[in-house]
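A reminder from the course coordinator: this example appears on the midterm review sheet, so study it carefully.

Given structure:
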């Protein structure tokens, strides 16, 4: 009886193992092209107008485009002693800066070329004026990154750089009401509310985000958070083709685990799965 039990038990075990093997043969690893690498980062951006733009007129023109002529005019009204030159000086000193958050999605292109990938993203930032002991928000912006196409070989392996083009929509946080003094009675009244018009800027702002290959295999990458000297890395910021400053990503405890793993990528072989 005991021997028969052992035979039945052994046969059952073999059958169970065969079923498991059969099941695994029908399973395949999930293709990497089905994955989306989602990453959230926080940053501070600083301006370097005088360093990168020698001509004063060009600096003023760029700042006007960056903030919008109406917003800049209201900013000067709000801060009576503010001028174009002082604004640029305050920005270069780090008293006018940006605090923002960025969420990006990286996905591969398994149909045309498995050596290319795309980046989409959204984010929000605030332009802050450190005025005496106060930090006043001048305006905020919602921004987005639409279908930025990149090459694994050129952008990641060779250049270690992702240039992402930013479209943004600005909302100012000052100048909504204005005090008006009557010349005869000298009484102050509040003028009608200043409307906040849409200021949409498409693909004029761009970030040059440095990347690194932490494992030396040219397949796994991440944002370069620290430079070779152990200091927080600077990532250049451009307005069209003019460099205007740099940004630094916040040094968070687990940044090193934010990896873009490109191993195992392949084409979608069956034409029936390809988009029409």
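Designed residues:
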């Amino acid at each position: 009886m005991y021997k028969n039990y052992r035979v039945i038990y052994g046969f059952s075990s073999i059958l169970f193992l065969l079923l498991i093997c059969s099941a695994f043969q029908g399973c395949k690893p999930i293709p990497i092209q089905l994955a989306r690498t989602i990453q959230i980062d926080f940053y501070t951006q600083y301006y370097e107008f005088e360093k990168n733009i020698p001509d004063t007129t060009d600096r003023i023109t760029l700042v006007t485009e960056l903030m919008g002529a109406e917003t800049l005019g209201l900013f000067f009204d709000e801060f009576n002693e503010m001028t174009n030159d002082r604004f640029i000086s305050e920005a270069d000193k780090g008293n006018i800066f940006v605090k923002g958050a960025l969420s990006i999605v990286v996905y591969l292109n398994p149909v045309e070329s498995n050596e290319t990938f795309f980046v989409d993203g959204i984010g929000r930032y605030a332009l802050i004026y450190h005025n005496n002991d106060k930090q006043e928000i001048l305006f905020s912006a919602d921004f987005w990154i639409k279908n930025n196409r990149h090459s694994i070989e050129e952008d990641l392996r060779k250049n270690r750089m992702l240039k992402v083009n930013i479209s943004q929509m600005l909302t100012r946080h000052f100048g909504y009401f204005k005090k008006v003094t009557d010349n005869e009675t000298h009484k102050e009244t509040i003028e009608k509310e200043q409307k906040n018009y849409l200021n949409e800027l498409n693909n004029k702002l761009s970030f040059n985000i440095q990347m690194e290959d932490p494992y030396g295999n040219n397949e796994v990458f991440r944002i370069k958070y620290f430079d070779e000297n152990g200091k927080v890395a600077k990532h250049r910021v451009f307005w069209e083709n003019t460099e205007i400053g740099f940004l630094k990503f916040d040094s968070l405890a687990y940044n090193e685990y934010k990896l873009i793993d490109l191993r195992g990528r392949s084409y979608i072989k069956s034409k029936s799965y390809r988009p029409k």
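The chain has six helices and twelve strands. Residues 5-11, 21-30 have pLDDT under 50 and may be disordered.
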